[in-house]
Amino acid sequence: MARRILDGPHIVLEEIGAPYERQLVNLAQGEHKSDAYLKINPHGKVPALAVDGMVLTENVAILTYLARRFPEKRLLPDGIVEEARCLSTMAWFASAVHTTFAHVIRPERFATDSAAHVNLKETARDIFWDNCKEINRLLDGKSWIMGAHYTVCDPYAFFFYDLGTRIKLPMHELAAYVAFSTRMLERPAVCKVRALEEDILKGSNAWHGQYYAQPRRA
Ligand SMILES: N[C@@H](CCC(=O)N[C@@H](CS)C(=O)NCC(=O)O)C(=O)O
């Protein structure tokens, strides 16, 4: 199975269609912990986005920045309350859902006693499954997380669908999430990112992420 990462910022960069560069960060080889990468993101995490001589880290900040930088693409909801609800959902994705997934794949980071790892992994897998069911409920009767309007929340929600399939959760049971995932896969930006990812990996199974850069504004 290819270890592609369909990260939200990559999809949103393609949705926007403005020029950007991307650089592979080989997580399997620990490139994200190298001195060079730690200068980019001291947290040693992907993704990161360089803009105007600065580096933005954290999915929530990168996605919000991109939506605000290209307002004509309408990637945030209209209205400050709806916008805050969108940010609230993304904050929950980052603080709860993403960190729960990290416990599934990296239990050794969260307990030094190896005897605890199997339990930690299984417990986190159950919590992640509950998170996926909650996302499914969020999508019930809607095309996109925020309703009829596609926003930066959607590629982020799609990322977790992909992670759920990787750890072999029965994602097919989540009807609204499956329909949403199908809609995402039909978007030209998502097709493009999937093709780029396949090209980057060239058959390799290495876990990787990416560091992006947008050209400086004149
Ligand atoms: N809170 C961060 C989390 C980023 C994150 O955990 N990225 C993962 C890849 S999806 C990573 O860098 N993993 C490498 C590691 O933790 O060693 C964000 O939202 O950007």
Describe the protein's architecture and organization.
- The protein has 218 residues and is α+β, with helices and mostly antiparallel strands.
- It has a single domain, classed as Glutathione S-transferase Yfyf (Class Pi), Chain A, domain 2 (Up-down Bundle), CATH 1.20.1050.
- It is built from 8 helices and 4 strands.
- It has helices at residues 8-16, 35-40, 59-69, 80-105, 117-139, 153-166, 175-186, 188-201, and strands spanning 21-26, 48-51, 54-57, 208-213.
- Strands 1-4-2-3 form a 4-stranded mixed beta sheet, with helices on one face.
- The longest helix has 26 residues, at 80-105.
- The N and C termini lie far apart (42 Å).
- The model has no long low-confidence stretch (mean pLDDT 93).
- Glutathione binds next to helix 4.
Condensed summary:
By secondary structure, the protein is α+β, with helices and mostly antiparallel strands.
Bound molecules: glutathione
Total E-strand runs? 4
CATH topology: Glutathione S-transferase Yfyf (Class Pi), Chain A, domain 2
Strand order of the largest sheet: 1-4-2-3
The main pleated sheet reads as: 4 strands, mixed
Number of helices: 8
Name the poorly predicted regions.
Answer: none
Provide the residue-averaged pLDDT: 93
Helix content: 40-55%
From N to C, what is the helix and strand string? Answer: HEHEEHHHHHHE
Radius of gyration: 17 Å
